[in-house]
Amino acid sequence: MCVFWLSHLRDCPARRELGLAGCRSARYGASVFCSVVLLSGRGHGQEAKAVASVAVEEPSVASTLSARVVNRLVMDDFMDVAAVQEGSRVSIRFQNTRYRDRRRALDVAAALAQAELGAEHELVLVPTQAGIPLLTAIYAPAVPAENGRRPLYRISMRTAGFPPEPTTRSPHGRLDVVIHPWFEGKFSNTDPVASRTGIAPELRMSLRTGLTVSAQALFTLHDDIPTGESRVRPGLLTLNQRLRLWDVIWVSATAGTFNPDRYGIDVEARVYSPGGGLSAGAEVALTGAASYGARDWYFASMKDPMALADVAWRELAHGLTVRMTGGWFAPAQPALRLDVSRQWGTTEVGFFAVQGETEANFGFRLIVPLVGAHYGRLTRFRARSAETFPWEYRYHTRSVGGRMFRMGNTIDDEVRQWMAQ
């Protein structure tokens, strides 16, 4: 009877009702009961000795605490969750697939974890993207605040003590269908405003640690601008690999088609100061022009280089970012670009100025959140709206100086969203 009971609890069919920690407690209780029964029957033959060997050992306090914390986050639909305890420090990795606002996801994960931890524990949260750690949020051990939560102590770009990748709730192999709206406008002093609008559904999937693939199509719903482009054409068709080197350098390599009219390969590297306030990056690419006409599509040879270097300073308390970028922009246009932006959660407003070889330009950039503060559970398939809608206005619309093509979120885009106030 004890053999059947223990083997049955090892699979734990009531896992959903009990949770991970509850299953461990049930198995331990069963093992204690069976041990008592078997000891009382000592001397009744070799069968009792054989059965006693299947008793489950008592889990350590550290493993039970880590299991309870992991169970809390998994039940709230976080993915890639793992926890490790070293003394009073509890480090937790997780990937957010539920909340549009990354900072809200961090707050929710902290509240769930703190509900299981005592005031003597130091909480360390490490958000990930496709299994790659982004930053570290540290909550110092202290008496809980009046609202029941400890305040965020500091942000660090180092991830020492990063928990190993878990085997459950992996983000890989899950198809996310993301619907993006898009808009292009042409403004003039004499002619009325002309515009193009449409939607761009994107299929997005993480294949393994750091490797993601995306396929997007642009559908034109309204068109006042006679461009001659097909009303259905490719958007982002990319294969992207990200990794961290020596815990201080972020690298992103992308191959495919980029918006609005380029294709090729692109490699970006970025390094941050320990607190994330200062960063520097470099980006090189080799691209060619892509044209998607109503009758035929055309791809020019990949002979247009791009080489950029930038330095950025971010005032974390108010979300103010100042960035200076210089080099050869696509397609091989030397220019210097200054960006100043302010971020509130998922909303961002910024201005830029460009000095090219022969002309200057300026404009503004706007990023606004779309509907849906949180999304459904990411199983094998999910459809949802995009998190934000970005738009950039250029005073001289025909000027290409200082223009950067789009290929999804850059490294700094993703990191800044987790730092938003």
General description of the model:
It is a single chain. By secondary structure, the protein is α+β, with helices and mostly antiparallel strands. It starts with a helix and ends with a helix. The protein has a 15-stranded mixed β-sheet that branches. Strands 1, 2, 3, 4, 5 and 6 form a 6-stranded mixed β-sheet that branches. The chain has 3 domains: 51 residues; 96 residues, GMP Synthetase, Chain A, domain 3 (2-Layer Sandwich), CATH 3.30.300; 245 residues, no CATH class. Strand 8 and strand 9 form a beta hairpin.
Average pLDDT confidence is 79
Oligomer: single chain
- Helical content (DSSP H or I, runs of 4+): 10-25%
β-strand percent reads over 45%
Number of domains: 3
**N- to C-terminal distance:** 57 Å
If you compute it from the alpha carbons, what radius of gyration comes out, rounded to the nearest whole angstrom?
Answer: 27 Å
Task: Jot down its keywords.
single chain, 421 residues, alpha+beta, GMP Synthetase, Chain A, domain 3, 3 domains, 15-stranded mixed β-sheet, 6-stranded mixed β-sheet, 6 helices, 21 strands, 19% helix, 45% strand, globular, disordered N terminus
